[in-house]
Design brief:
mainly beta, 17 strands, disordered C terminus, T6SS_VgrG/RHS, Rhs_assc_core
Length: 205
């Protein structure tokens, strides 16, 4: 199966297409965003040859997955647009490994997990490897698999460390360095780990 990503200029994933091991191309995922990623719509619509009808699929129930995340962006659960339908649920240890007997899946696995990053389940099993953009992370050893490109900036830390060894205080946004996730980040104009074009006027909040 071949997978193709559609991204915006900031490398944010907008949609995912695949060929399902055949000649036809299918629109598989359409990501939904507010101030951060909210979840995804799953059209599974053929776009090559005789394309499907997106309007019809959009009005069908049970094609949307919404993310329930914590302050670190960890996807703790995904729910459907149908009442009382929980598709996935996961609890994480501080450095991101999935806790034993504290995860649940109704139908398949969800693409995103710890810190909201994309899982690479084909390599080491479910949730054991994530793509952070600049580097690949293995939560089982709490380390990145390659040297930090800006390691000279932090001589006191191992070049393979994750989030300055402070996984509850902050996240490693793109595999480079710690990004604190607390209230002052909102005053600086950060939402879900991403810098906004303009800071938020906290006087009006």
């Amino acid at each position: 199966m071949e997978t193709r990503y559609v991204r915006d200029p900031r490398c944010t994933t907008l949609g995912i297409y695949g060929n399902n091991s055949g000649a036809q191309v299918f629109w598989k995922e359409h990501h939904l965003y507010g101030s951060s990623r909210l979840g995804m719509w799953l059209p599974e619509m053929q776009v090559s040859g005789t394309p499907g009808n997106a309007v019809t699929l959009w009005n069908q129930a049970n094609r949307t997955r919404y993310e329930l995340s914590n302050h670190l962006g960890n996807v703790m659960a995904t729910i459907s647009d149908q009442p009382l339908t929980v598709y996935n649920m996961t609890d994480y240890a501080p450095f991101g490994i999935q806790q034993v007997r504290r995860n649940y899946s109704l139908s398949g696995t969800y693409r995103y997990g710890f810190n909201g990053k994309e899982n690479d389940n084909e390599v080491k099993g479910e949730g054991n490897q994530q793509d952070y953009g600049m580097r690949i992370y293995d939560p089982r050893i709490a380390k990145f698999l390659s040297v930090d490109p800006i390691t000279k900036k932090y001589p006191e830390l191992t070049p393979y460390q994750f989030a300055s060894n402070s996984p509850i205080y902050g996240i490693d946004l793109d595999g480079l360095e710690l990004l604190p996730m607390h209230s002052s980040m909102y005053q600086m104009g950060f939402i879900s780990g991403k810098k906004l074009a303009m800071g938020i006027n906290t006087a009006t909040i």
